[in-house]
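Narrative of accomplishments. A recurring question from our advisory board has been how the design workflow behaves on a single, concrete structure rather than in aggregate. To address it, we present the structure tokens for one chain from the evaluation set, followed by the sequence designed for it. No filtering or post-editing was applied between the two.
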């Protein structure tokens, strides 16, 4: 009976272990777990793995676990001693599922990019139409709804009296008096002079002339500061053959700009390395001399 159970155990282990029947340890010659220790930890691990059991722990734990299966059929072994095959299967399926999910995401992204490329003009036209809807007035929206429901309305011919009245109104509009603007304030978006407090707030009462820009007049400190980076001032500086750098910010006179440019060139020449002036020599006593002094002493034979 023991041999029959051992054979059944070996057959089950062969199915689970994938053909590792030669690694199964025959437990009949062993009478205790201590005798199994003589086989070694690696041999015990291979035997446990062939039976589909847990193979962790030290050699003593493995021997005890293996000896506890002596004389037992595969279905009589404690399930706690067996490997958790479901965990490995789940992990493998999750890893394969993760790869499949990544592939599906990439395919979906490729489809979306293709659709966006084909529907790009339609999307842009829809956005422009939506923007136009937001900028229309209530009367325009109602007129469009009426046109969609009843069709575009045809304007009937006006009577002669109505035409004369309209012509009279146009004449009145043409004959409207000029705007009252004694302080010569700039006009706003509605075609009327801006308030005087706003005029003073922005400093538009201050005028600045720039000779480099062709005596152009700028109103307000803000416009004056910004014009140094604009095309008109840059063109004037190019005509003077002077780079429009930050050193000339605030300079509006041509003579001042030319004088400042000459000063900058002189300063750059002084800071530039000059071999005759800045090159240094050292004599045998360790004295450091410039080039002119060293050559003068050498000619006199004093070195």
């Amino acid at each position: 009976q023991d041999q029959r159970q051992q054979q059944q155990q070996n057959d089950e282990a062969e199915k689970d272990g994938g053909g590792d029947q030669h690694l199964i340890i025959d437990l009949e010659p062993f009478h205790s777990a201590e005798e199994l220790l003589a086989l070694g930890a690696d041999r015990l691990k291979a035997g446990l793995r062939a039976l589909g059991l847990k193979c962790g722990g030290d050699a003593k734990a493995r021997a005890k676990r293996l000896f506890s299966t002596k004389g037992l059929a595969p279905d009589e072994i404690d399930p706690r001693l067996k490997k958790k095959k479901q965990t490995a299967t789940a992990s493998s399926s999750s890893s394969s599922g993760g790869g499949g999910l990544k592939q599906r995401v990439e395919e979906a992204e490729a489809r979306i990019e293709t659709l966006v490329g084909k529907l790009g003009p339609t999307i842009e036209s829809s956005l422009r139409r939506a923007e136009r809807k937001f900028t229309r007035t209530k009367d325009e929206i109602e007129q469009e709804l009426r046109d969609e429901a009843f069709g575009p309305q045809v304007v009937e011919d006006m009577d002669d009296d109505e035409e004369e009245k309209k012509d009279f109104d146009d004449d009145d509009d043409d004959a409207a008096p000029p705007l009252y603007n004694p302080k010569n304030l700039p006009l706003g978006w509605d075609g009327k002079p801006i308030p005087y407090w706003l005029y003073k707030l922005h400093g538009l009462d201050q005028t600045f002339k720039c000779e480099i820009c062709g005596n152009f007049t700028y109103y307000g400190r803000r416009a004056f500061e910004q014009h140094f980076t604009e095309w008109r001032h840059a063109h004037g500086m190019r005509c003077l053959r002077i780079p429009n750098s930050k050193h000339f910010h605030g300079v509006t006179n041509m003579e001042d700009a030319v004088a400042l440019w000459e000063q900058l060139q002189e300063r750059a020449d002084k800071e530039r390395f000059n071999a005759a002036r800045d090159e240094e020599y050292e004599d045998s006593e360790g004295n450091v001399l410039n080039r002119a002094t060293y050559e003068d002493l050498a000619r006199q034979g004093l070195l």
